[in-house]
Amino acid sequence: MAQLKTWTVVRFLSENSVEAVPTYWIKFSEKKCYWSPYKSPQKLTKAISNQEAPSDNWDTYSVEFFQGSGNYESYEVAVEKCEAAKYESDLNSDIDNIALQNNEQRKRTSFPPKRYLISSSDEERSESDLQRSPSPLKKKRITVISNKMITPPLPPTPSSSSLFLGKDRSSSSTNTADCVVPDDVPLSLPQYNDNLEQNKTVVTTSRTCESCNSILNEVKAIKAVVLKIYHKQCITDQLQKQLSDDVNNGIKMMEKCNNPSINTKSFNLFDQVELPANTQDMLNQWELFLEITENYTSSVTQLSAIGGNTLYDFIKRLLSKIMKDSVAQNFNMSGRNNKNNFKETKTFKLLLDAAKTHRSVHTEKDVEIAVGSWLRRAKERHEQALKSIRIS
């Protein structure tokens, strides 16, 4: 079943104006009402009569309800009740009687509520837009004590939050129930008194100065807080910059330590020990050199950078820099046939780590096969070298 369209008469507290609005524009739990942002009276009336659905850009305003107010199924009836509500708080009163009693009051000039003047950019707004519904008539408020006019109390001094952050549109109006005199009651006003007027001026000026001093003190306090926040922010920025510089320096140091090309510049293996070894004693000195952890690590880094097209090519280039064939022919990978076991030497472990650093895909078995193949050919290479020397 489709929802029944109804209208409700409400009073907008911020402008003290009365309107007939679609019932579902009202948020009853919060006592607030949506209001269309249209600046054209025709579009606004059409939105209300057609019950246009509120959107996200619509503002809400605080409202109050009238005694006897209900939900009217006809927009025309709601408009009549709206006119009655401008003069009576009870909407059950006779509309015709109210219109006759207040015929003269309706002729007074009125101005549109602020809700109709949200934006000043619409230059096409006609003067008829300003002649909206008349604002409710206000009764005279006069305080009389012993036939002397007393200046009504000044409004409360606005707080700093209302000055800088703006005040809520929906704040309720102040209570003015001191002494209300209807228009039809004659009053005997006191005669003009120069001394009284001077006293009123002094009191008003004094109160105004006190208000200004109070506001000035609050502004100074806010300024002091802002300066403290600014100083703390400056200190935070300096600490953040210093921390960023420290982190960058740490990263550069780590990159320098992990870069093999930088380490090899400060460490040259061939300046530390005599290579390639052409005797067993020289090879033993090389083995003792590798026992030192720092020497071993630096040697792995430098030798892994030599490179080679294949694993055998890589092993051949390394071993040719470490030992001569005359020494290599005395080794094999098992220690059989009265030869030394090369697998038990520190040099083999060095070759294994250098190969894995060069290419991580190399396994220990691959390195062992390549080294064994090079050692088996050491005797043949040595004899060919001797033969070449004899011929020359």
From TrEMBL:
It comes from Aquatica leii. Pfam families: DUF4806. Residues 271-352 form the DUF4806 domain. Residues 103-179 are annotated as: Disordered. PANTHER family: SI:CH211-262H13.3-RELATED (PTHR34153:SF2), SI:CH211-262H13.3-RELATED-RELATED (PTHR34153). InterPro entries: DUF4806. This is DUF4806 domain-containing protein.
